[in-house]
Write a structure and sequence with these properties.
The protein is of the alpha+beta class. The protein folds into two domains: 13-183, Sandwich (Jelly Rolls); 195-294, Arc Repressor Mutant, subunit A (Orthogonal Bundle). Helix content is 42%, strand content 21%. The protein has twelve helices and eleven strands. The chain has helices at 13-24, 63-68, 126-133, 148-158, 164-176, 185-196, 204-211, 215-223, 229-247, 253-260, 265-276, 280-285, and strands at 28-30, 37-44, 47-54, 58-61, 73-81, 84-88, 91-95, 100-104, 109-112, 117-125, 141-143. The strands form two sheets. Strands 2-3-10-5-8-11 form a six-stranded antiparallel sheet, with helices on both faces. The chain has a five-stranded antiparallel sheet with strand order 1-4-9-6-7. It is elongated. This is Helix-turn-helix domain-containing protein.
């Protein structure tokens, strides 16, 4: 989302609006006295990516426009240059270069520009995000570019082709913490562990990569809380497997361990006995007396 199109040149506002509507849906442009602008399209991770350069006073999406569009989705907008004031769902956000804003195509929106602006908009299908957000409203989310979550989202965009689910998880964490855009690294890591511990490939190294920080930075953040990233991942998996052992008698112990994210069944059995003083099978049956080591 960081590639910059060629410098602006004069453009017919009506043509600019037509180009914008062709790729972004129903928007209305309030042009400056001497309008310049361009709309360029591309793809990122199999999704539509639109770069909008403009000196318009504002770009607006009214209630009727939002209701008329038949392909509901989210716009993940990144300010690449200049600045903008983004308004949706009662949120009024000032975007600086590098910042992100999540807008919904199903709601009215007003984007104001006091000078020349360059933005990139990634069109995200609504159903996967709606499922990730649950009852939380994603529209109006602001992520400062230098915040923990802003850096993590930028990193996820670079990995979108190979890790498509990562972006949705990060946005869901950010939406959950809308009142804390400067979410601390430890809180972001814990939320990400809660969502992805069932993935056997999750390790402290992959966790730090998702958050866009070094492994040492992540380790320091956990050390400040007298904890470790590996311990937090293991604890989440252990809590999940315990719940599965009791709630899913139709699953084998191995299946429960796999669903909880344990990559090694023999290591899981040893760790379980060390944590609970019994085997997983005994735990499931409610027989929790300590067992002798074999």
């Amino acid at each position: 989302m960081n590639h910059v199109p060629p410098p602006l040149s004069g453009a017919d506002p009506r043509r600019f609006q037509g180009d914008l509507q062709a790729v972004c849906g129903a928007f209305h442009v309030h042009p400056a006295a001497h309008h310049t602008g361009s709309v360029t399209t591309g793809r990122l991770g199999g999704l539509d990516l639109v770069r909008v350069a403009t000196n318009a006073r504002a770009i607006e999406r009214g209630a009727r426009d939002a209701a008329r569009d038949h392909m509901p989705h989210y716009f993940l907008i990144r300010q690449l240059a200049g600045s903008a004031r983004m308004e949706q769902r009662g949120q009024h956000v000032e975007l600086a270069a590098g910042d992100f804003f999540l807008a919904s195509s199903t709601r009215p929106a007003l984007f104001r520009y006091g000078e020349s602006s360059l933005q990139a908009s990634l069109h995200l299908p609504r159903p996967p995000l709606a499922e990730a957000f649950g009852r939380m409203a994603g529209a109006g989310l602001h992520l400062p570019g230098q915040s923990v979550m802003g850096r993590a989202v930028a990193r996820a965009l670079a990995r979108l082709s190979s890790q498509p689910d990562e972006l949705a998880d990060l946005l869901a964490i950010a939406v959950k913490n809308t009142d804390a855009p400067e979410l601390a690294l430890i809180a972001a890591a814990q939320d990400l562990i809660a969502r992805r511990a069932s993935d056997p490939s999750l390790t402290p190294a992959t966790l730090s990569a998702m958050l866009g920080v070094s492994l040492r930075q992540l380790q320091r953040a956990f050390s400040a809380e007298a904890a470790t990233a590996s311990g937090a991942i293991a604890a989440r998996r252990m809590a999940t497997v315990c719940a599965l052992l009791r709630a899913r008698p139709d699953l084998t112990v191995t299946a429960c361990a796999g669903q909880a994210g344990f990559p090694d069944i023999s290591r899981f059995t040893r760790d379980f006995r060390a944590a609970h003083g019994c085997t997983p099978g005994q735990y499931r049956r409610g027989t929790t007396q300590p067992t002798a080591a074999l």
